[in-house]
Amino acid sequence: MPERTLPFIRDQYLAFEFDLRVNTEGRTKLVLTSEVRERAPFTIHKSKTPHHKPNSRSLWTMLLLQLRQLQPISGLCQSPSTARIQGRGRVRSEALQTQTLSSRTQRIMEGISISSEVGGAGGAYSYNALRRLDQLWSSICSAPAAPQEQWNVVSCIPGLFSHSDMSERAVDTFDIIVCGGTLGIFIATALSIKGLRVGIVERNLLKGREQEWNISRKELLELVEAGILVEDEIEQITAAKFNPNRCGFEGKGEVWVEDILNLGISPFKLIEIMKKRFTSLGGVILEGYSVSNISIYEDSAVMQLTEGKILSSRLIIDAMGNFSPVVKQIRSGRKPDGVCLVVGSCARGFKENSTSDVIFSSSSVKKVGNSQVHYFWEAFPAGSGPTDRTTYMFTYVDPQPGCPKLEELLEDYWDLMPAYQVINCILPCSLQLCFQVMGVLLDDLEILRVIFGIFPTYCDSPLPASFDRILQFGDASGIQSPVSFGGFGSLTRHLGRLSTGIYEAFNGNFLDSYSLSLLNPYMPNLSASWLFQRAMSAKQQADVSPDFINELLYVNFHCMQRLGDPILRPFLQDVIQFGPLVKTLGLVMLSKPQIIPSIFKQVGVSVLLDWFGHFVMLGYYTFLSLLIDPVIRPWLNTLPDKRKYEWKRHLDAWKYGSGLDYKQ
Ligand SMILES: Cc1cc2nc3c(=O)[nH]c(=O)nc-3n(C[C@H](O)[C@H](O)[C@H](O)COP(=O)(O)OP(=O)(O)OC[C@H]3O[C@@H](n4cnc5c(N)ncnc54)[C@H](O)[C@@H]3O)c2cc1C
């Protein structure tokens, strides 16, 4: 029997005999005919009976790849009632094949013709862009944890701009300037609809990326409610729809839902629509201009572009993303508290391509470079063709020297992705389909684009305004979930609140940093989700089982499923609420109390104590929003304008900070 090294089970040993039986209805059944001997990281449930039905997805994958790779298969007999493949397999560890790590990624990426790259997150697909992001990532990892001396983009200048020499050099004046156009165009359009004169400065072409955003229809309707999209346009921008949607946990089980993150939206089409709407409302877009520095005067914010142009406005909205130079200055270049690294591809050639994975957790941690990583997956059909599918692999890490580079993760991705997709498709298939699915090997896929990104997170998010007349928005504000990083999803949720608040701040001239900070207030539900990211980051700890993260997630999801849709659905859409959290934690403690000590070991006592504070605040905000808000609201109109503005923001913070904005 030939021995082969399968890439995803290096350093493991497995021997087995099996029958793969297919009945007349086309149902497949895998039957192990001998004892499985293994010392692999997968959970393989051994049966005492010879007719063992494995429930490990890993085993399925291995066997199917083995079927594909071992030639000849020892027998295939057809009868009217069953088709049967018999086999005997052995997989033994061998050293990693000698291949330079970058070559495969580079070869794949350089073999793809790239039609257009855009400035927003996940909008660059070239190998050079990957190298640049890896360099940035390395510099983040090696930066000291303490704040650093920074080049200042923003400076505060006493006096009035209208009295300064600079005022004559300003080429245009706006009510509000939005820097960065990806999510920036949405707030710019919402404010233009309210009658303000808004300009957008975007250093690239203002264009949405080809790679789709996935989102639920319910979230998109928030854009309709905010008045910037009409319902008919939802069809126009929807590139793909897929149901059902799975949350899977390797070797443990899965939870299936419907209509969660089940639409693939074309950012390209959506942003085209926004651009037309924005310009028809009198909005001005300056494409190909980069923000160089900003001076804050008592009456204006003045922006100098690298091309020498000077623009003035009363308020600047910083929507320059996670790597905004203004945010860097505010955070004094401080290292992020956690980072999510994501790599992936959109590829053609998936025959079974109707469902999606919201999350699929692998069963154990793995060493890449000097770091431990736990891989998670997300996959969904793409709109470019019926067999096109997007597959992301992501992991949460503490930024430090030795962390894996994106290119290293991509090398792992090419090894692991076909196996993950086989797992994804195999269960309901017939023998014919089974062979087709076994055909999901990398060589059989046409890689349409390679996708990658870095999501830095700070536990003290969202970011309050640090300067008068400048407010962060979108990823720059840190308002997106530290677990899902669905920045577009987060925008849909907060756009109505923010556009109203910014408009009122502008009209009332409440543009000092305190008043603007009320628009990005403390939100206990966002801070509480920080713990989830910590729990999902692999640690180098001998006393925590390598299966812990997978187990913890499975237990939580399973409990949420038992508690029903009102508990599970908001969570899957990044909304943490007090009641559902209490119920879930209660059920986890009752059904799996033995997991609690490992949680302490995994995240540490200080993170847990900190989290407990946010948990209490979540309860408090829920109380305030449910019981105190109705008492205060009728009095708002009797208050002076400034107090009224402040109280409205407090009420918003209670509601959104406790997740009570979520409608089932
Ligand atoms: C691989 C990947 C997949 C994702 N999938 C999803 C998803 O399915 N659903 C979802 O909701 N979210 C998703 N996201 C997140 C989403 O893409 C981001 O949240 C969103 O792009 C954030 O938009 P932003 O405008 O805040 O920041 P960015 O997208 O980073 O855009 C910042 C903009 O500012 C411009 N800019 C930067 N500096 C300057 C300057 N000095 N002067 C002028 N302009 C400047 C840039 O050119 C860019 O256009 C994904 C992200 C990645 C990386």
From TrEMBL:
<protein>
    <submittedName>
        <fullName>Uncharacterized protein LOC104588042 isoform X1</fullName>
    </submittedName>
</protein>
<dbReference type="InterPro" id="IPR036188">
    <property type="entry name" value="FAD/NAD-bd_sf"/>
</dbReference>
